[in-house]
Amino acid sequence: MAVITLEEALRRRHGRRLVTTNGVFDILHVGHVRYLAAAKELGDILFVALNSDDSVRRLGKGPNRPINALDDRAEVVAALRSVDAVLAFDEDTPEAVLSVLKPEVHAKGGDYDPETMPETRLVRSWGGEVVIIPLVAGHSTTRIESLLTVDQ
Q1: Fewest CB within 10 angstroms: 29, 30, 69, 89, which?
Q2: Cα–Cα distance between 34 and 77 in angstroms, integer?
Q3: C-beta atoms surrounding 150 within 10 Å
Q4: Is the peptide bond before 66 cis (omega within 30 degrees of 0)?
């Protein structure tokens, strides 16, 4: 299984500069790959926190989401060279994971405003920073899903 526990994540950290990010990562595309590579460049190690299947459904991404189950999404994301570990969370936000890991950097995609993200205040409370990484234009899971449904 590609998902590790918080305890294992803390062991793997070993005092290195930790970057975290979170999301669904449902249908991996070039935008995700470039985003995760850019996030990794912000520190020594990159941990990706994935929304559980129940959490994805609560996000309102659509009636067919997630398309891929958590274990499948985790295996694909963990296989990327830029990703050092994958965790899962069942809450609506990654705050519980972040409060344990206390990353130096928390990265999010350009479609987010750090001032409206619930995790921003938490990350800044221990001196961490939130970094917004620009999106790769024309690449999104929602766009891919819409193309697939048009063809049916």
Answers
A1: 30
A2: 12
A3: 7
A4: yes
Confidence bin at 1 (pLDDT 50/70/90): low
CA distance 78 to 3: 8
- Write down the pLDDT at residue 36: 98
What tokens were used for 26?
């449902």
Q: Which residue has the tokens 């994805």?
A: 56
In this predicted structure, the answer to whether residue 70 has a pLDDT above a threshold of 60 is yes
Q: CA-CA distance, 13 to 9, in Å (whole number)?
A: 6
How many CA atoms lie less than 13 Å away from 70 in the CB half-sphere? 18
d(CA 36, CA 88): 16
What are the tokens at 4? 């590790």
